[in-house]
Amino acid sequence: MVREKSPGLKILWVWTLGTAAILATSVVRMRLRDMENTVNFNSDQQQSLHHQQTSSTDSFSLDDADKSQV
């Protein structure tokens, strides 16, 4: 009672599953790339913020030293 499928139907299934696999892989790669860009952007912002805070702290301490000499 085993039903044999036509070769055209087998090819159609392989084509469909292959296309689905390619699309799923593309979506996963795109999401990973977006997540990586977001992480890099956030770390760049944090470094910039840290640099700004360090610069403002340094200038503040220099200002205090100048005032104490006056």
Automatic annotation (TrEMBL):
* Keywords in alphabetical order: Membrane, Transmembrane, Transmembrane helix
Q: Composition bias, kind Low complexity: at what positions? A: 43-59
Q: Where is this region: Disordered?
A: 43-70
So which domain of life are we looking at? Eukaryota
TM region(s), chain numbering: 12-32
Question: What protein am I looking at?
Answer: Uncharacterized protein
Q: Which organism is it from?
A: Cucumis sativus
